[in-house]
Specification:
Blueprint (H helix, E strand, L loop, with lengths): L2 E5 L2 E4 L4 E8 L7 E7 L6 E7 L5 E3 L7 E6 L4 E6 L8 E8 L13 E2 L3 E6 L1
Parallel strand pairs: 2-11
Antiparallel strand pairs: 1-3, 3-8, 4-5, 4-9, 5-6, 7-8, 9-10, 9-11
Length: 124
């Protein structure tokens, strides 16, 4: 049973930073890709960033490119999302997701497993 557990959310002022973590368990993830998505109040879930465990290929939404960095710690089976220069519009619940193929994609329905989410609130 795959489990994804996010942590690291919180309240931060605009311009600040947060690092989200996603601890993955229950599988060997070497052929998986991992993604971060977010859902703001009243909006659809949207793609933020993705990475694969095997080659470290990354893919970012335009809205976060240059501000957010996705990375993995293979020894800890953990995926990180470093978020810098945060803006009020980054406020959302952030979800970690895993897909059983190692291509990095931005479509939520192609991800097989999801965490419960962690709240990020950016004040102006």
């Amino acid at each position: 049973q795959v489990q994804l557990v996010e942590s690291g959310g919180g309240l931060v002022q605009a311009g600040g930073s947060l690092r989200l973590s996603c601890a993955a368990s229950g599988r060997t993830f070497s052929r998986y890709a991992m993604g971060w998505f977010r859902r703001a109040p009243g909006k659809e879930r949207e793609f933020v960033a993705a990475i694969n465990w095997s080659g470290g290929n990354t893919y970012y939404a335009d809205s976060v490119k240059g501000r957010f960095t996705i990375s993995t710690d293979n020894a800890k089976n953990t995926v990180y999302l470093q978020m810098n220069s945060l803006k009020p519009e980054d406020t959302a619940v952030y979800y970690c997701a895993a897909r059983r193929y190692d291509s990095v994609v931005d479509t939520p329905r192609t991800y097989d497993y999801w965490g419960q989410g962690t709240q990020v609130t950016v004040s102006s």
